[in-house]
Amino acid sequence: MSEVMPANGSIHGLQAYKSYVPVFNFTTFQAFLPFIYILPTIVVMITILMRYRKAKAASNSATMDHNIFAFIMFYFLFNMLFYFGDYFHLNLPTAGFLTSWCAGIEPNRVFSALIFYSYASNFGVIICPFMVCLMRLTIMMSPRHNERYCRLIMYRFAIPFLFIAPIALTAFNITSTGYCMQLNHPFSFGSIIIYEGEEHAKMNIYIHFTFSCCTFSANLAMTTFMFYKLRMTQVNTTSARTKELTRKAESSLFLAVFSSVVPFITNSICSTAFIFNRPYWDYVLFLRPIGNDFETTMMPWVLFLSHPMFRSNKKISSTNTVSTAFVTSNTTSQTRKPTVVC
C-alpha cells in the first residue's frame, strides 16, 4: 500500500480499502456462524414467553414467580439487543463486508450512536442476572412476604436502575466521533471495527470492567450465601422431598453462576489486555463474542430444557415444583415454611 495509514487507524478515504473485496474464508464465514444458534435461541425465548402466559392463565403450579420471570424476559431482551449491537460493532466489520463501504464514509456521530447502543445494552445484560439473584435471595430469606418485598425491589429499584444506569454509564459517548479502524495483527487487511477513538475507548473499558467486577462480585456473594442456606436446610431436614429440592436448587445456582463466569472471564481478559498491554488486545479480541454468545444462548436453553413448566403435563407435579434453572415458586401464604428456591 502506497497510502499512509492515519495515526488513529481510520480507513476513511484510503483507496486500498475502498476497492477491497472480501474473500470467502473462515474469517468471513464467522459473520454468518452465530445465526446458526442465535435464531433457534430466539425461537426458544418466544416459546418460553408463550408457555409462561399459558401456564399463568391456567394457574399451573409449575409456573414461576412473575417478578423473576419479568427480569428473565428483560435479560433475554437485552441479550438480543446487545447481540445485534455487537454484531454490527465488531463481528460484521471484522469479516470485511463493510470495509469498502466504510472507507467512503466520513467519521460521524451515527457510528458513535452504535457504540453507545452496544455498550448500553451490554450493561443491561450485566444488570439482569444481578436482579434475578437478588429476587431469589429475597424469596429464600422471606418466603412469607416475598411478594411484597419483590414488588418493592422491582418498582423502586430494579426497573429504574436497569434503564437509568446503562444510559448514565455510556452518556459520555455522545461527545465522540466514531469511525472505521483497521485492526492490527493477527487480523488481516480489511478486518475493521467501528471505533470511538482511543480516549473514549479507554473510558468505556474502564467503566465496563469496573461495573462488571462489582456486579459479578455481588452475584457471587449472594450465590455463596444461598448455597450455605441450602446446605443448612439439607443438614437440618429429614424430608427426602426437601433434600431432593435442595439438590435441584444447588444445580440451579451452579448453572446460573457458570453461565455468568464465562463471559465475565472473556470480557475481563479483553479489558485487562486493553488497559495494561494495548497491542495484545487485538490478539484476545476474538474471545469477546465467544463469551457473550455463550451467555446469550445458554440461559434460554437451560431454562427451556429444565423447568417443569416446559415439560409434558404428566411429568409436572401437582405441588409447587422447583426449577433446575431459576427461582420460581411464588409464595404469599402466611403459614408456609421457608421455601427452597433455585
Automatic annotation (TrEMBL):
Record bears the keyword Membrane: yes
Domain of life: Eukaryota
Stored InterPro entries: 7TM_GPCR_serpentine_rcpt_Sru
Pfam family membership, one: 7TM_GPCR_Sru
Presence of keyword Cell wall biogenesis/degradation: no
TM region(s), chain numbering: 29-49, 69-90, 110-132, 153-174, 205-230, 251-276
Name used for this protein in its record: Serpentine Receptor, class U
